[in-house]
Amino acid sequence: MSTAQRATVDALMRQAPLDGSLPPERLRADFEAQMATDPNPAGVRVRPSALGGRPALTVEPDGAPVAGTILYFHGGGWVFGSPATALRLTAALVRRTGIRAVSVDYRLAPEHPYPAAVDDGLAAYRDLLEQGVAPEHIVLAGESAGGGLALTTLLTARDAGLPLPAAAVALSPGLDATFSGESMTTKHDADPLFTRAELVTLVAHYLAGQDPDQPLLSPARRAELAGLPPLLLQVGSNEVLLDDATRFAVRAAAAGVDVQLDVTADVPHVFQTFEGQLEEADAALDRAAAFITAALARA
After folding, report:
1. Which of 247, 246, 232, 240 shows the shortest CA–CA distance to 285?
2. List 144, 172, 183, 218, catalytic entry
3. 14, 48, 160, 161: which has the fewest Cβ within 10 Å?
4. Can you list the domains of the chain with their CATH numbers?
5. Residue 38 has what pLDDT?
6. Rounded CA gap, 241 and 192, in Å?
C-alpha cells in the first residue's frame, strides 16, 4: 500500500471537489482544464473518428494492434467530460492490452437529458456490429457515469436482441440515480470529491424531472441483470459511490452473471486516473487489462 501516495492524491482531490451548482458550461471548462493531457500520449496513436452518429476518438497502440475493440465511455455525471478528458485512462488500457479503443462523445445534459446518453451508447455498439466487428471481439468500458453507461448499454443491447460483447469493465460506476446506498452516508467524510447533495444537484440536469428509480437510471436497484457477459467492477473504498458497485455486483451474481468486484482500500473515485503517481492505480489498470485480454481470449 502506498500510504504517502494515497495521502497526496486525497489532498489533491480535496482542492477541487465537485460543485454541482455551477453552470454546466463552467463545469465542462473546469473539467477539461483539470483533465488536460498530451493529445498524443506515449505508446498510442490518437485520431478523430465517429461512431453511432457521434464524434469519437480512436486510440490505437503503437505497432500492430491485437484483434479486438474497447468501446469506451467517459465520465462526468452525464453533464461534462469528453473522450479527451478520458484519454489518459483509454490510453492506459490500450497500452496494456494492445487493443484499439473507440471513445464516444455521447450527448450531455441538460441539453440532452435521459435517455440521450443511453441511446447514444446503444447506437455506438450497434454501429460497431454493423461495421462487421464481431461481438466476441468487443469489450465495453468506462469510468464514473461512463462506467454506468457501459453497463446500461449492455442492458439495452440485450433487450434489443443484439448479440452481446465479450465483457464489460466499469471503473467507479454510477449505477443508482436515487443515491440511496449506505455509502452515501458512511463514506461522506472519506470521499474527497463528492457528497450526496452535490451529486443530486448535478444529476438533476440529466433527470430533467424524470423518476430516477427505474432500471436504466438506477440499475443497481432496479435492472434485471440475467444474461449479461462477464463483468469487472473496480471501485475505491473511499467513495460515496461504493455501494453502487457493490450492490450491482451482488445482484448480478445472484442473477447468474460472472462478475468480479474489485475494491481497492483507501483510494478515491476513479483512482485509476493517477497512473504513474499511485501504485494502486497501476495495479488496478493491470488487472483490468488482464481481465479484458482473458475475456477476448475465451471468446
Report:
1. 232
2. 144
3. 161
4. 3-298 (3.40.50.1820)
5. 75
6. 12
Kindly report the pTM of this predicted structure.
Answer: 0.98
The one catalytic residue in 60, 143, 239, 280 is: 239
CA R_g for the chain? 17
Q: Give 190-239 pLDDT, tens digit per residue.
A: 999 999 999 999 999 999 999 999 999 999 999 999 999 999 999 999 99
Say if residue 63 is exposed, middle or buried (CB neighbours under 10 Å; 0-12, 13-18, 19+).
Answer: exposed
Mark whether 137 is an active-site residue.
Answer: no
Give Cα separations from 98 to 70, 93, 102 (angstroms).
10, 8, 13
What does the pLDDT read at residue 1?
Answer: 65
The amino acid sitting at 105 is D
pLDDT confidence of residue 127: 98
Identify which of 147, 86, 83, 76 has the alpha carbon closest to the alpha carbon of residue 109. Answer: 76
**Can you name the residues that pair with 103 across neighbouring β-strands?**
57, 72
Give 299's pLDDT tier (boundaries 50, 70, 90): confident
The active-site residue out of 143, 205, 218, 269 is 269
**Closest Cα partner for 178 from 266, 127, 241?**
241
Mean of the per-residue pLDDT values of the chain: 97
**Alpha-helical runs (H) found in 225-278:** 242-254
Pick from 254, 263, 259: nearest CA to 229: 259
H helices within the chain, ranges in order? 3-14, 24-34, 87-97, 116-130, 145-159, 183-186, 196-207, 219-222, 242-254, 279-298
Residue pLDDT, tens place only, 142-194: 999 999 999 999 999 999 999 999 999 999 999 999 999 999 999 999 999 99
Q: Is 144 among the catalytic positions?
A: yes
Active site residue 49: no
